[in-house]
Design brief:
- It contains nine helices and ten strands.
- With 264 residues, the chain is α/β, with parallel strands linked by helices.
- The chain has one domain: Divalent-metal-dependent TIM barrel enzymes (TIM Barrel).
- Strands 1-2-3-4-5-6-7-10 form an eight-stranded parallel barrel, surrounded by five helices. A two-stranded antiparallel sheet has the order 8-9.
- The chain is globular and about 55 Å long.
Length: 264
């Protein structure tokens, strides 16, 4: 059976028991957990707290598919001790500096990180992020292509692929050799006003799956045709839910549509 996870970033202030109730109420059997300051477990206490947190979730039928965090060695060790196979990351350079210079420096960081990943048996997954970052799947593939896919993988994101103007089939093919996770959210550009120069300004608007620039049916078909066997993550990222109830409604509708595509 396909495995589905949800990114629990929107529920930062929930207790562990409340988080379990939310995840189970939505019908997910796995989560992507934001291992960041201010959440249920923080990086500074991960080595002691993450295994216990993972066990409590597991006792309630929920596993941690991956964490979104900074892959320091203590974080990798905590994930290994907790049975969590992956840490999701993004490469976010500064637009004011030369991109290729920053990419070269990031490759040096990945050189060291590859050894740590193999040591601990925990993968790092680099997510494409349209805007400042590895903007296209081709950028991501160029960065990770030199590394062992057991250590460094690719996270394909429907929303950012669509914002980059990619064809989903082509972008999935580019990521395929190292693909370890797929994110199904969606987005489109909206005019946000005009700059002092008079030119139009556009910003991403994260919306329900059926309303964005990436075709989920085409993406799911390509992944199924290629035999994708990893988790299907719903990131629960939307620009303007007016309430917690509306956020939950968005997630339920997107999850239902994704399941119909994956299992249909």
């Amino acid at each position: 059976m396909p495995s589905y996870s949800i990114f629990t970033k929107p529920w930062r202030t929930a207790s562990t028991d409340e988080l379990i109730e939310i995840v189970r109420g939505l019908g997910f059997d796995a989560i992507e957990f934001p291992l960041r300051d201010g959440y249920q477990v923080e990086p500074g206490s991960a080595e002691s707290s993450l295994p216990a947190f993972t066990r409590k979730l597991k006792d309630n039928g929920i596993r941690i598919e991956d964490v979104a965090s900074t892959p320091t060695e203590p974080v990798l060790a905590a994930c290994a001790a907790s049975g969590i196979p992956m840490v999701r990351v993004m490469f976010i350079p500064r637009i004011q500096r030369d991109y290729l210079d920053q990419e070269a420096q990031y490759l040096k960081e990945l050189d060291s990180l590859e050894r740590l990943c193999l040591k601990h048996g925990v993968k790092v997954g680099l997510q494409t992020h349209c805007g400042a970052g590895a903007t296209t799947t081709a950028d991501t593939a160029r960065i990770i292509g030199r590394y062992d896919p057991r250590a460094i993988g690719a996270v394909w994101d429907a929303a950012h692929s669509g914002l980059a103007g990619e064809q989903p089939e082509q972008s999935i093919d580019l990521a395929w050799s190292h693909l370890c996770l797929v994110n199904f959210k969606n987005a489109r550009y909206q005019m946000a006003g005009r700059a002092p120069t008079g030119e139009a300004e556009f910003r991403p608007y994260f919306c329900p799956g059926q309303d964005g620039q990436c075709s989920w049916p085409r993406a799911v078909k390509r992944l199924k045709d290629k035999g994708y066997g990893g988790a299907w993550c719903v990131p629960a990222e939307y620009s303007d839910p007016r309430s917690d109830d509306e956020l939950l409604d968005y997630v339920k509708r997107d999850f239902a549509w994704l399941r119909s595509l994956v299992e249909g």
